[in-house]
Amino acid sequence: MSSQEPNLETPHSMADAPDTPTPAAAPDAGDLAAQLALAQAQLAEAQDGHLRAKAEAENVRRRSEEEISKARKYAVESFADSLLPVRDSLEAAIAMPDAPLEKVLEGVHATLRQLSAALERNKVLQINPPAGTKFDPHQHQAISMVPAEQDANTVVAVLQKGYLITDRVLRPALVTVAAPK
Q1: Which has the closest alpha carbon to 164: 123, 114, 104, 121?
Q2: What is the pLDDT of residues 26-47, one digit of tens each?
Q3: Pairing of strands 155-160, 162-165
Q4: DSSP string spanning the chain?
Q5: Whole-angstrom distance, CA of residue 131 vs CA of residue 129
Q6: Which of 27, 74, 117, 178 has a 20 to 30 Å separation from 58 between CA atoms?
Q7: d(CA 34, CA 29)
Q8: Phi, psi angles (nearest 5°) of residue 94
């Protein structure tokens, strides 16, 4: 044999080969069919669960949109309901044009109390800073600066009350502010 020719002989015969692991016995057809049926049942159950979860999520989204729409549409309902007695009082005052001035003034004060209570129930609060309060540009609007016998940048007088809705400024208070000395 030349060194160039491949050696086709094996050093050991097949009988002499060491023990090699033999593949596991193939499962019989009945086991495979049972496993396939089980996998298909699990898949069908998972698909059904997915479809149900998807439908539930869509229902929640739709209900949420309806609730938001209703909340926007009827948000003012409570506020309007609390203002109706104020309107009734004003109409009653107009219905009595010949009432004495004292009675009209008494009715105006009562109506103002009703209006104030209705606003407070709906979290509409006054901004009416007393004189000497430090000027707050978030709640006050300075109309002018005037010389005053108090600290600079403090409220001298309120020209028009401001209002908050909860913590948000609806209208700032119009104020005059003490000028620097």
Answers
A1: 123
A2: 667 789 999 999 999 999 999 9
A3: unpaired
A4: --TTS-----SS-GGGSPP-PPPPPPPPHHHHHHHHHHHHHHHHHHHHHHHHHHHHHHHHHHHHHHHHHHHHHHTTHHHHHHHHHHHHHHHHHHT-TT--HHHHHHHHHHHHHHHHHHHHHTTEEEE-PPTTPBP-TTTEEEEEEE--SS-TTBEEEEEE-EEEETTEEEEPEEEEEEPP-
A5: 7
A6: 74
A7: 9
A8: -70, -30
Nearest to 141 by CA among 114, 176, 168, 166: 176
Give the pLDDT confidence of 96-127 residue by residue, as tens digits: 989 999 999 999 999 999 999 999 999 999 99
**Do the beta carbons of residue 170 and residue 138 sit within 8 Å?**
no
CB 128 within 8 A of CB 155: no
For the record, the structure tokens of 38 come out as 């089980």
Measured between alpha carbons, how far is 130 from 173 in angstroms, rounded to an integer?
11
CA–CA dist 81, 131 (Å, integer): 35
Q: What is the token pair recorded at 177?
A: 């502010």
